[in-house]
Amino acid sequence: MIEKLNMEDVLAMRSDGYYSQRTAGAKNAIDSVLPIMKEAIKSLPQTEFLRFADFGAADGGTSAALWAELISGLRKDGNIEHIELLYTDLPSNDFSTLFKTMQGMHGDPSNAYQIQNENVFVHGCGTGFHRQLMASDSLSLGFSATAMHYVSEKPCEIEDHVHMVGGQHEERALFEQRASEDWQKILLARASEMKSGSQFIVLNFGIDEEGRYLGHTGGHSMFNKFTEHWRALLSSGNITQEEFRKATFVQHYRTLDEFKKPFNNSESPVSKAGLRLKHARTQLTKCPYQKAFIDSEGAMSPKQYAASLIPTMRSWSETVFLSALSSRSPEEAQSIVDAFYNSYEAEVAANPDGHAMDYIHIIMVIEKE
Ligand SMILES: C[S@@+](CC[C@H](N)C(=O)[O-])C[C@H]1O[C@@H](n2cnc3c(N)ncnc32)[C@H](O)[C@@H]1O
To answer: What number does CATH give the domain 7-368?
Structure first.
């Protein structure tokens, strides 16, 4: 029996480890910031105990190796401080898989740092990251990956597309305004939580200097493909016009300038709260599924490639389409959404050229004075 969806589930990743098992690219992006995190670990503020936080962690699987390496590195270097790791996400998140992963009961047991190290305490917080989530002046190191492109609420539906990247000028402006207010709230909340001298390292989906973004780096554009296949269901009478427009991602891809804006003015609330942007850059992470397909030199068929690529898109996007169908029975909604992904998969299988999901991240190191 499929449970009925509520609005909050629109943002949710698929549970039971489905998310992290099918998002190799998100893990690769996280692994790429290990050197920056190691640097940050070297200059942690002096404290009675260490509190780390992973904001918008989903089931924790994609960052488990990073935290395992950082914590074992600290212990190897003789650090014996108590370490508290606070994972945050929305209340609907699959925290159960997360806790099991860290205790070696799920996923790769080599990352079960909680049972491999003394005095490491794993906590969960189900409150959104636009608010302060822990005691003031208590965070030694903050981290967040691929999560803060989710805006706190949808400012409007995108009428003729599924994502703000394909929205009309006025629609994009509304998303930009919401994202700008959210970014300030996120930063002010972190400023309250962070200890003086601590860092917040955040990698976020965004739009790079060349106008590239997730699934839009040359070749087919993934969000256009989502729109085309969703519109085909409208044309064939399988979904209504209202259902078409309701499938709007609650996301905004900020540009580098949008991310930097609160730091550029010394009189801004963020600057006054003591936050400084130490470093910001954009990064492309190649689609690991396309890479595996190309590297296979024909051993992997286009059909197999399509069957590996579509689930990675589905792991984070499915709830958007399911929630657009919330007036239908869960079984009917699921069968329409299955047809939607199946038609995209069939297109990729028929001709895989130009289909991929490269990641574009904006990586920032933020410090509290
Ligand atoms: C694409 S996943 C990224 C998960 C993981 N950090 C990674 O990089 O693989 C985005 C996560 O952000 C969470 N999220 C979205 N809005 C949030 C909010 N306001 N507060 C906390 N988490 C949020 C989602 O529930 C989801 O688990």
So the answer is: 3.40.50.150
Burial tier of 298 (Cβ tally within 10 Å: 0-12, 13-18, 19+) = exposed
Distance 261 CA to ligand 1 centre (A): 23
Q: How many CA atoms lie within 13 A of 302 on its CB side?
A: 12
Residues of the chain falling short of pLDDT 70: 1-22
Q: What is the pLDDT of residue 45?
A: 87
**Exposure b/e, 342-359, CB count within 10 A at least 16 = b:** eebbebbbeebeebbbbb
Residue labelled with tokens 């989710």: 150
**For 16-33, how does the pLDDT look when each residue is reduced to its tens digit (9 = 90+)?**
655 666 678 899 999 999
Name the phi and psi angles at 255, rounded to 5: -85, 170
Q: Is the CB of 95 under 6 A from ligand 1?
A: no
- Tell me, in angstroms, the distance from the centre of ligand 1 to residue 186's CA: 13
Cα 104 → chain centroid:
23
Q: Is the CB of 316 under 6 A from ligand 1?
A: yes
Pocket test residue of 146, 249, 252 for ligand 1, highest count of atoms within 8 A of CB: 146
Q: Ligand 1: distance of its center to the CA of 267 in Å?
A: 30
Q: Residue 91: which H helix or E strand, with range? A: none
Please tell me the distance between residue 135's alpha carbon and the centre of ligand 1 in angstroms.
21
The response to whether residue 247 sits with its C-beta less than 6 Å from ligand 1 reads no
- pLDDT tens-digit profile of 30-54? 999 999 999 999 989 888 899 999 9
What is the position in ligand 1's atom list of the atom closest to the CA of 58? 27
